[in-house]
Amino acid sequence: MSEGHTNRHRAHHGHAHDHRSASRRALLAVLVLTLAFTIVEVVGGLFTDSLALLADAGHMVSDVLAIGLALVALTLARRPSSPRRSFGFQRAEILAAFVNGLALVLVSGWIVWEAIGRLDDPPEILGGWMLVVALAGLLVNAAAAAILIRSGRESLNVEAAFRHVVADFLGSAGVLVAAVVILLTGWDVVDPIVSIAIAVLILASAWGVLRDSTAILMEETPSGIDADAVARAIVDVPGVTSVHDLHVWRITSGFDALSAHVLVGQGEDCHALRRHIERAIAARFGITHTTLQVDHDSADTLIELRRS
Predict the structure, then answer these.
(1) 306 pLDDT exceeds 50?
(2) Pairwise CA distance, residues 101 & 93, whole Å
(3) Strand 240-252 vs strand 255-264: parallel, antiparallel, or unpaired?
(4) To the nearest whole number, what is the mean pLDDT of the chain?
(5) Cβ-proximal residues to 209 (8 Å cutoff; 6+ apart), any chain
(6) Which of 80, 109, 244, 254 has a CA between 20 and 30 Å from the CA of residue 176?
């Protein structure tokens, strides 16, 4: 391995370690906030008989599980690589994000099921206490969102947690509106209606997490990177004649990788051109983990054989 490649690997490792440490601290703080308010919201939902509160509490329970799983995944990602696992456990956080997305789908389904059952015969709801809990939820979710924004949101799990928190904030806002309507009009049907709206928000949040994590697990070209543009950038390097077997994929959050077979002209310095290509790819696309096979183009040296 070249000294330049080693330095880039160390730089990437240091950057990954920094953003994972920030992600871990942010997730731990949000976990404490979320767990504490989940207990408050469950008690409030049972006391007021509000499905909207219980729906929001159900989402927050999924948040607690999701964030806990994300913290475990980030801890696993710190473990060193081995001959068997050349990238270590860095994909663990992507698997965790995928499971988080599935959990959100299940929670939204439960909320809709319960809400439909209440539309015809909604119970009497204590709107005043429901309003108090909703206001507290807005404050807690705003604080959690601020913590995650300050962490940089580089990790997919932090992004997933942020989407959970945003959905929770909107859910608390919906509960607040329902509480005001109940207090002013006594129309209790608004509670299951708001619950269904919260379920839709949860499902929208789940879709984004599942889409992003599935794309990484399927090793799709990362969003924001055009594989054709990468190929053109390589071929535009003076001395390069063609590029084949180009692959660009994402290992985990903030860690993109590239491999390719590059052909260069006869008489060109393969090692110098490889370093030139690596610098060009890093500068333009931010990809620092590259595996390039560089060979001389043999097109001009082929000998046509004829039967005598």
Answers:
(1) no
(2) 12
(3) antiparallel
(4) 82
(5) 97, 98, 100, 101, 104, 156, 159, 160, 163
(6) 109
- The one-letter code for the residue type at 214 is T
pLDDT value of position 294: 94
User: How many residues can be counted in the chain?
Assistant: 308
Contacts of 73 (CB under 8 A, 6+ apart): 89, 92, 93, 95, 96, 157
Burial class, 207, CB count within 10 angstroms (exposed 0-12 / middle 13-18 / buried 19+): middle
What's the token pair of residue 172? Answer: 């608390």
DSSP 8-state code for residue 78: T
- Hey, what are 284's tokens? 């333009």
In this predicted structure, the answer to whether residue 214 has a pLDDT above a threshold of 70 is: yes
Q: Which residue has the tokens 């599942």?
A: 210
User: Of the segments 90-99, 161-170, 179-188, 273-282, which one has the largest average pLDDT value?
Assistant: 273-282
pTM of the model: 0.70
Please check whether residue 43 is in contact with residue 3, taking contact to mean a CB–CB distance below 8 angstroms.
no
Residue type, 42: V
Both tokens of 124, joined, read 């009497």
